[in-house]
Structure formats: C-alpha cells, structure tokens
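Quick one, tokens below. Sequence please?
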C-alpha cells in the first residue's frame, strides 16, 4: 500500500509526500589519511577506492550524480545491497563510502566526514497510489506519518 524511499523515477500513478532530507557524508575507516578531518571537498576522494550501493539503487544514483557534477570518475571497489554491508567493507579498510549518517554504523571502525563543497542531500519520501483502495486504518496511518514528519523534520 505504501512505499518509503528516495524516488528518482517519479511514477505519475503515485502520490508522494517528502518526509525528510539527509546530509551525505564521506565514510572512512578510523586509520584512513582523511579520518582526522572534519570536512573534505569531494574531489579529495577521487584517488581512493569507493564502496557503494549497486547501480540502480537510489543512493547510488545520487552518489553518481554527485561525482558527475564534480567531474569525478570513481573507482568502485565494491557494490553492495545494504548500508550495513557497505559500512562493514569501509570499516575493514577496503574503500571509502558516501552515505547519510546511519546509527547502525560501527563508530569504533568508521569516521564520518562532512563534504565541504556540496549541498547534495537525499530526500526520503512516502508514496502511495491514489487510485487504490486504502482501508480507514491505512488512511490514518498515512496521515500520521505525514503529520509526524511535517512537525519533526526539515524537508
């Protein structure tokens, strides 16, 4: 009945409500040369192997657009399907990643660094089909989610 995610291919059959926006960070292992920095320009990562999501994933599309905007040709070392796996690969020192701040990341192994010269953000939206029957409880749930994020998040 509902979808939550970052949507790049807008389906005209669906309705969307933006819930929140996430800042993106560079993720590096604790012993990485950039690990002691608070912020780096995105061009500074171009010589490092990149750990990212597989092609077609929303975050990968966003990261590819970020690289394209800055004329960077990334060297992908690993492409995964979930944030925890990517964080594990980064933590093991096999590359660096670009992702939103997720609480599941192991802070003992990974450092997040701000991207100094980019305003890229990931927008997370709530989607539904207006032409599909939604039960009264589903309608209440949809309104609850939208109201909650309108009062707590900055979009």
């Amino acid at each position: 009945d509902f979808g939550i995610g970052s949507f790049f291919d807008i389906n005209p059959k669906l309705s969307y409500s933006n819930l929140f926006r996430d800042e993106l960070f560079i993720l590096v292992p604790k012993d990485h040369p950039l690990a002691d920095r608070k912020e780096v320009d995105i061009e500074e990562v171009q010589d490092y192997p990149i750990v990212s999501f597989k092609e077609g994933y929303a975050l990968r599309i966003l990261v590819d657009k970020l690289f394209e905007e800055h004329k960077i040709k990334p060297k992908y070392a690993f492409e995964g399907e979930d944030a925890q796996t990517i964080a594990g690969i980064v933590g093991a020192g096999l590359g660096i990643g670009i992702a939103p701040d997720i609480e599941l990341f192991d802070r003992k192994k990974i450092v997040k660094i701000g991207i100094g010269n980019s305003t890229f953000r990931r927008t997370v939206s709530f989607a539904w089909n207006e032409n599909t029957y939604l039960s009264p409880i589903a309608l209440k749930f949809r309104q609850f989610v939208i109201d909650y994020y309108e009062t707590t998040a900055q979009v």
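The mean pLDDT is 88. The radius of gyration is 17 Å.
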